[in-house]
Write a structure and sequence with these properties.
By secondary structure, this protein is of the alpha+beta class. Helices cover 51% and strands 19% of the residues. The longest helix is centred in the middle third of the chain and has 49 residues, at 437-485. The model is unreliable at 637-644 (pLDDT under 50).
Length: 695
Amino acid sequence: MLKKIRNYILKRYRIGSDEEMQKFIALFLIGVIGFVFALQLFVRNLIESQSAGSIPGDIALLVFFSLILYILQFGKIKWAVNTIFILPIVSYYFYISRAFAIYPVSDATSNTLYCLLPGFFFLLIFAEKLYKLLIYFVLALSTLSYHLWIAGKIRPAFLFQWPDEEQFTNPLPILLIVFLFTLLTFLFYRNIIRSLKQQAESTQEQMKKATKSMLQAMMITEIEFDEFETASGLRIKMINPAFESAFKLPQRELAGKDASLMFPRLFRGAFDWEEVYLRSKKNKFEFYAEHLDRWFEVYLVRPGGKQIISLFYDVSTRQKSIDQLKESRKRFQVLLEAIPDMFFLIDKDGIYVDFVLKENENVRIDPNEIIGNSIYEVGFSEKMSRKIYQCIQDCLRFDSIETIEYALEVEKGTAMFEMRIAKLNDDTVISIARDITKRKVAEIKLEEAKNRAEESDRLKSAFLANISHEIRTPMNAIIGFSKMVGSPDFSIEEKNKFLDIIISNGKMLMTLINDMISLSKIESNQVEVIKSNCMVNDLLVLLYKDYMNEMSEFPQVSLKLRNENANPKFSIYTDYNLLKEVLEKLIDNAIKFTNKGTVEFGYRTLPEGLIEFFVKDSGIGIAEEDLDRIFARFHQLDNRTTRNYGGTGLGLPIAQHFVSLLGGKLKVNSRLGEGSIFYFSLPAENPAGHLKIIR
């Protein structure tokens, strides 16, 4: 009954919250009780002509409560609260007016006080603004002061000592005390409410952020009820970005809409939403969205009240894997039943009656050790024997097919077997044992291959995300500053700076494209090694000059070149371009990860007929556990696109591949926070100018 009244009030007066609902009901009850009391008082005084009552006062009281009920008919709760300001008029007709007061005016000051005091508690409960309490205090003080004035007690009221012959205490201090108590209580609870609202808003904001950042699709719905308190519909309140992405419909088209209109667009009849959301109590179900070709597992959270939170997990990959495994199992079952390796007939007591054994390289069975013996006597463990016996009983009782997998020690090690037990007649079962060792090994390898494929897919996904970021960054700079170069609003000097930025980002983009081309060539084995006489010193000096032109962008980093053999004709027989590209990538890496310090590169000759090239920096260094991973293709120590250092994670893998093509191996020594040194040794084939200058 109470719920029906509540729903009627909500629909009739459009009450928005539970707090407003409580205020409405409380005001309504006050209005009804007060109106009945005032009406009874008015009728009694009207009938009893000799009554000492005040007809105008009764009318004022009746009007006061009638106004509350009348205003509530329009759902105006605040206006109904404001009727309390009429209360001084009621007190005037009852106790102040010489013509209508029910008591002598000089003796009724305390009655006026008691008539006005409930207004403070009324406002304490219902008022939302402090100024209403202040206004009422002014009205009450004015009313009481006027009463004291016409009663001739205004002067004693402002004295410390109230006349002894008076029956009641000075009303003004009481009014002030009640006002101050009400004011302090109002402020205290207002601060508490404000703090709670702030906490609620903060919590709600955090929940919104968490909802938006969730990877799982989420939808919040609200159940609608009819007048009989029966669930009649569902309305979508909110969805998160993951839901928008999964079902291709934006928030603005779904929020506030009726589920009966939107669910057919979202799910295309994949499940009966009325059964799931309105009638069933299940908190989990699955469905297949044919138009999206995806499986979803849905968890329903019912926090109480009308809301239902739906979490959609995309389980398409898992479902496809399950279907594939089911299909594979079905095929295996058919094969096992059609071409079994071993047949055993076992009676209900677990005694072997007969068997047929086909050739098996792992198992050799003597018929005398099987026929007439129990399953407890043929080599199974106690636990395994009990399990087989239980399966036999279940198979005979329920006419089911029981399957057991077990390991068996054989001549060549451990073999895995699958035992299938099926009912043959009321007293006998047939047991089919099949060697599944190879299948188990294949499943393990398949799982390992799956894990490797998933890891490769993850790394490639991270690479694609990074490459997208790396392409957009220089392209945005090139496009943006190109527009600014053509603008007449900038000076020549500023435009020159813009051109430098465009050139710098163009180089970055070119490096990125070169890395992609190099990777493509590596993937397709199209990298050719074209060896020639390479002038080592000329190559290093050229690299030094090229990088010195760019070092102005890194004012806190110094570049050093160390060539052990100062002979300008010193050369080795190798691929000039590949060697140059390897050194460029190592130097780029060193400069990029050195915020302050020195980057040094060069070579030294080794006694084994090798020449060792190196690039050394004093940068951030690499943790020991990451040293083996930095050469992995598509791998970066920080795979986020919002990392501190740019790059695609291809530089070191490409450099390592090129070094291996040249006949060497790229190595690294590093400590976190202490810098790194990358080095590799190449055979000094057909060296020229090998003599050193000794001073």
